[in-house]
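DATA SHEET
Item: assembly model
Revision: 1
Owner: S.N.
Input lines:
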Amino acid sequence: MSDRAGLLSAVRRALGRGELGVDERRELDARIASAESGPIPTRAQGERRELIDRFIAMAEEASATVRRVAAPGEVPAAVGDYLAAHNLPSRLRVAPDPAVADLPWRGQPMIDISVGAARAEDSASLTPALAGVAETGTLALVSGPGTPTTLNLLPDAHIVLLRAGDIVGSLEEVWTRLRRLGALPRTVNFITGPSRSADIEQTLQMGAHGPRRLHILLIDE
Amino acid sequence: MAHAHSSNFEANARAALADAQLQRALGHVRVNFVERRAAAAARLPEFERLRDRAVAIKDHTLAHLDYYLERFADEVGAAGGTVHWCADAAEARAAILAICRKAGARTVTKGKSMVGEEIAINAHLEANGIEPVETDLGEYIIQLRKEPPSHLIAPAIHVSKEQVADAFRAAHRNLDPARPLGEPAALLAEARAALRGKFLAADVGITGANFLVAETGSAIIVTNEGNGDLTQTLPKAHIVLTGIEKLVPTLEDAATLLRVLARSATGQEFSVYTTVATGPRRAGDLDGPGEFHVILLDNGRSAMLAGNLRDALRCIRCGACLNHCPVYQAVGGHAYGAVYSGPIGAVITPALHGLAGARHLPNASTFCGRCEEVCPMRIPLPRLLRHWREAEFERHLQPAVSRAALAAWAFLARRPRIYGPAAALAAAVLSRLGRRHGRLGSLPAPAGATFQQMWRRRP
Ligand code: SF4
């Protein structure tokens, strides 16, 4: 098993050549290092205000809901409103990341707050996003000690906190940000709207295996 | 149709054309996929430029595949994962079984993986006492019905909601037999609940990969349901089961390909979940798999690099060529009797499984050229189908009378304006000839009607 040399030599045989020389390998190393982008759609470019508006429009088109809040301090009340408006249990599983765990939850005594990775019984979660991609209304969420991936997947309702300043135009800008942060996290989730399936008679239905609802709290400050 | 075989395309096609339920289901292809793709492509002015770039990226990668495979494998290792190099299906099955055994696995969840179908991993796991559970809704349905997929991205497109309800009643015996299952919403809710338990119980999760990134050693999967994410996040070990042709050099290259994938597949701007997985759980992580394995499968792919067929390795399995193919639209995927159906299936099946068992597939085409027009990777599918026809001719797999017919066909197929009427004539004549000689069963096309005629006559 695990015959690396055998498979590689089959590939080289088919390509009609032997191993690449040092110079050729250097060129390919340089191609990777250059991280050159392909065509970036016009719609992924623009002024910040334009990109924010486009992000909201595209996210809503993908059936996410967006609410703008003026400051992080207003997030707990916005979460309370959301759970109540959709008749969801007043329980919330919050990511350990201080950006969401350290919000003034005391102001919302009705919500049962707990912090950690998602459990089977969690009905709603709150996580912070690394970025929003205006081009397609996509959220970029990364795994880490403060941001367990299961929170993005298991609960019925997923609430995401996104700072307007973290909205970028294209996917490529997310890669740039991630490279600046160092090694790629174990998981990068790009999420565009709630889970869905059209596998039964091609009828689109929301809430296949992931969250049935995706709600974005967009912090304007 | 479950036991259709590719050596029998004509009989399968006839049965499919006469199947009213299947014909109703296939109507969804024409409306949903074709119209939505057109709208999505029209909405993005850069779409054609993105296609050109996507083709260039894949051509470059395939020409240097040894380099990119090595770089990828080194990066997977650096991230704490393990690469398993597998020359054929048997090696891949053995590698997967060994990982499952080591994890003490009893239940294995699976995200949608065409390579999983290609190597028939489910039967192998079952034979070894491990329960494989398909988690993509369409795959789950066909697993319960013990059928192969009939579409690259909509595996249960041939199934009606009544048939889904029957399958669920037979499988979910713990539920009230009198429960209403008339609506898709009820069916989806039941599947969600049934599979939630499986996700949480699974010891190993197997996903495919849409792209492998050499730069970072990452596997990218794209789904709408989120099943692939639960599959790879919850169990102790995540296995990425994938072909060697999935490599791209960088994350930027992946972004370009992602822009054409969803639009070509479902007409979405972007799929709901695009996930980049790199190695196992990190220090301090509260969830994620403890092990990360990548099965790199060759199984006939490296040989395709050598000639004309290299172009087919650019395929990103979007399904557009199936959706736009008049033959696929008329008979569905099962008639092809192979894991990969439609134009791309007819091209790669003989390469992956040998021409002898798939010799009728290259004939499953009207050469209308729609597949090549819509293929985001600009794969010259009609030309590659002709390649197989000629190979078939040269290998003398056909009986003598049919070989003569093929020579005529090859001549006519290159001249599309006279192809239709002439082929009809040839079919009628050869059919009579065949009957007189008592060897009708061995003739592929000459059964009294060409495929194009059968298609027009379909109910
Ligand atoms: S051949 Fe082209 S159109 Fe067909 S599945 Fe592959 S990429 Fe899509």
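QC remark: Chain A touches chain B through 81 residues (CB under 8 Å).
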